[in-house]
Amino acid sequence: MSDMTGLIVGVTGLASGIGAATAQLLQRRGARIVGFDRRAPDFPVHAFHQVDLGDAASIAACVAAQTETLDILCNIAGLPPTADKHAVLRVNFFGLRHFTEAMAAHLAPGASIVNVASLAGLAWRTNAAHLSEGLALDIHTADAWIAAQPIEGAPSYHLSKELLIAWTTASCASWRARGLRILSVSPGPVSTPILPDFIATLGPRVEEDLKHLRAGEADEIAPVIAFLCTPDARWIVGADIAVDGGAGANAWTNMLGLKV
Fold first, then answer.
1. Most buried among 120, 158, 199, 228, using CB within 10 Å?
2. Has 79 been annotated as catalytic?
3. Catalytic annotation, pick one of 157, 167, 175, 198
């Protein structure tokens, strides 16, 4: 277990779920937490900034209010697939990317950025041409493209997480050139307050996973995020780490028709 005493860690989405579990674990290991969320957490932190990651003006005000240098940034905030597709894509990808780029000036040399994606982004490599369209846009220019996507519900969530993984992977060299390290984590179904939203929207896909594998717990995801924040993981760059109880392995096995 790495000692994180004295490190300042920014955590988006820390008010509940995986974000709360991660923030509290890092605090127990000595880190000072700077939280970013639409609502304040119900536990004490070093500092808290209210922000709506779907709104560029809110992001700008939040970044302007941030005065301390962060050693680590954990991007854990996200909306479930029950939300409107514009909100899902703006918060889960376009706003997250905009926030991260804007916050880069407040990241210490050698800082790590850990993005929480999802098992829902598993097939991102098969969707490169479509993802390239989205990656060419930003929070100011994406609305027309989002409106043109014939998706709602689950597909919008899948697309948001595919974009996040693709951006993390594709941008790792440019972040490294700035002395920063970026990677992502992809949990499977997790027992958080929004799990019912995933089951209701993703339906058979989640139900099939849960026939064979239980839902994970937030405190099973948080230690992986914590490890990836530390120097012990310094050679993990641009990777997407599955923390899904084997659900991704099952999905790829089925998609590729592999039998053993």
1. 120
2. no
3. 157
